[in-house]
Amino acid sequence: SHFGTASQMAMQLLIKQPEPAKHFTAFSGNVFTGKMRLMVQVKNIHDKERVHNYVRAFIASLGGIKNPFTNVSSEDLSRLSRLGKVLDRMASPYEHERTNAFRILSSHLKGMVGVDMDTVASIHGALDAGRDLEAQAQVSIKKAKSFMEKGWNKTRDWFIDLVDAVCAPLGLATGYCPVGNVLHNGRCIAGSLGAALTAGVIIARIADDATSLARGKYSHLSDAYAQKQENAFCA
Fold first, then answer.
1. Helix segments in 133-192, DSSP class H
2. What would you report as the CA-atom Rg of the chain, rounded to the nearest whole angstrom?
3. What are the DSSP calls for 19-54, one per residue?
4. Is the terminal CB of the chain with fewer CB neighbours within 10 Å at N or C?
5. Pairing of β 136-143 and β 36-45
6. Does residue 188 contact residue 175 with C-beta atoms inside 8 Å?
7. Which pLDDT tens digit goes with each residue over 87-145?
C-alpha cells in the first residue's frame, strides 16, 4: 500500500541519525554580485546536515545565492514548511505518534512530483536549525578577490563602521579574523549562529550594494583616485 511505502521511507529517514561536529564550515563562498565573500563556521553542533541546509537557505532567502531547492515549487515549499512538527513526530518514542506522522506525510507527498522523505527532511532543516541556532558561530565577511575582482590590502574604515553598527545592537563581538587573509581585508563576527548569520548576510548585502554603486559611479577614473572616491562614497 501507499502508506506502507511511506512508512518504510520514514523508517529509513529515522535510521539516518544526526551527525554532530565540533568544528564545521557551513558555508564559504562569494555572495550577491560576487564582491563580498562570506564564511560561516560553527562549533559543537548536533546536526551537520541540518545546519548546512539552514545556512544555505537563509543566505538564499536574502538573495545571496541561488535557491538550493530549485526542484521544489514555491507552493510545495510552503506546504512542506507546515509539516515540520509532523516530521519531528517521526522520531517519537511512541508508535501511535509515528504512525500518525507517517499517514499525514504520506497523504501530503501524494501530489508532489519529485519530492521524497529526504527532500522533506532537507527543507525542514533549512527552515529551522533547531537547538543548533544557539551554537557558537564565527562569521567572516571579506572583500572577494579574483581575476575580475580586486581585493583589499587593508580593511576599509567604512566597512569596519558598518560591521560595528549592525552588530552592536545584537550584542555580537566583532574584530579581525585570525584565519587566512581575512586579517587585513575583512571582519569577523562572533556569537550565536542565528544572530551572527543574520548580521553577516545583511552586512555582505549592504557592502556589495555600496561597492557596486561606487564602482559604477567612478569606474572612469584612474585606479588610485577611483579607490579614494569609492571609499568616500561607501562611507
1. 157-167, 182-185
2. 21
3. --EEEEEEEEEEETTTTEEEEEEEEEES-HHHHHHH
4. N
5. antiparallel
6. yes
7. 777 777 788 887 888 888 878 777 777 777 677 777 777 778 888 999 999 999 998 98
Beta carbons of 53 and 45 less than 8 angstroms apart: no
Sheet bearing 186-192, strands edge to edge? 21-31, 36-45, 136-143, 186-192, 173-175
CA 198, 158, 210, 144 dihedral sign is negative
CA dist 148 and 152 (Å) reads 13
- Burial class from Cβ neighbours inside 10 Å (0-12, 13-18, 19+) for residue 110 reads exposed
Residue 226 has pLDDT above 80, yes or no: no
Which is more confidently placed, 26 or 49? 26
User: What does the block give as the cell for 223?
Assistant: 585606479
Three-class SS state of 142: strand
- Which pLDDT score is estimated for 70? 73
Q: Which residues of 149-161 are buried (b: 16+ CB within 10 A; e: fewer)?
A: eeebeebbebbee
Report, as an integer, the average pLDDT of 202-221: 79
Q: What number of residues does the chain have?
A: 235
Angle at 126 between CA 51 and CA 90, to 5 degrees: 90
Cα-Cα-Cα-Cα dihedral sign, residues 106, 107, 110, 113: negative
